[in-house]
Specification:
The protein is mainly α. It is about 65% helix and about 0% strand. The chain has one domain: Orthogonal Bundle (Hypothetical protein af1432), CATH 1.10.3210.10.
Length: about 190
């Protein structure tokens, strides 16, 4: 019998572009491999990878409407840039389909991270940030390799890379991303 959490993907999956489907499969495969390397559930992280961008191609109005339907507390940053809601919306769908809470939360936070992100969340965030289909960017290959050795180090690196990307484009990072970056930073030397 097929996994009902996978069957629930059918309708939203078919609305995604081929490019977004390929990215999601690549993230799912990498998340599965990182889960195996770091002692998490490979199947559940594979599912989280498939779900993570299900709402990525919805319009701003659709994202806002669905976030409100799910009772997601839309903040001013998300209201100004509704694309940030694609993680919470897809995470809500994954939870509704029966994905356990830590894996639905990993999907919620893959857009902005969170200062208290657990291992599953860090795995998905890193997998999304370094999957090879993203194309080359400075440090991507190093972060990819580090992800299998030291997840915390790779997570910190992807956060820093994401902040650099946003700042280079004059975009304001979400406060959760800034808080996650501060929380992931190594403590100062004594």
């Amino acid at each position: 019998m097929p996994d009902p959490r996978l069957t629930a993907l059918d309708a939203p999956w078919m609305r995604l572009s081929a490019r977004r489907q390929a990215h999601s499969v690549s993230v799912a495969e990498l998340a599965r491999d990182l889960a195996a390397a770091h002692g998490d559930d490979p199947h559940l992280l594979y599912l989280a990878g498939l779900y993570h961008d299900l709402a990525r191609e919805l319009s701003a109005d659709e994202l806002l409407m669905e976030a409100r339907r799910q009772a997601w507390p839309v903040d001013s940053y998300e209201a100004a840039a509704p694309i940030l809601l694609h993680g919470p919306v897809a995470g809500g769908w994954a939870g509704d389909a029966g994905l356990p809470a830590p894996y639905a939360a990993a999907i919620w936070w893959h857009t902005t991270a969170h200062p208290h992100l657990d291992r599953a969340g860090r795995i998905l965030f890193v997998a999304d940030g370094v999957e090879p289909g993203r194309g080359p960017y400075p440090g991507r290959e190093d972060l990819y390799a580090r992800a299998f050795i030291n997840l915390g180090d790779a997570y910190q690196g992807v956060l820093a890379s994401t902040l650099g990307y946003l700042q280079a484009r004059g975009l304001t990072p979400h406060p959760r991303l800034l808080a996650a970056h501060r929380a992931a930073a190594p403590p100062p030397p004594p």
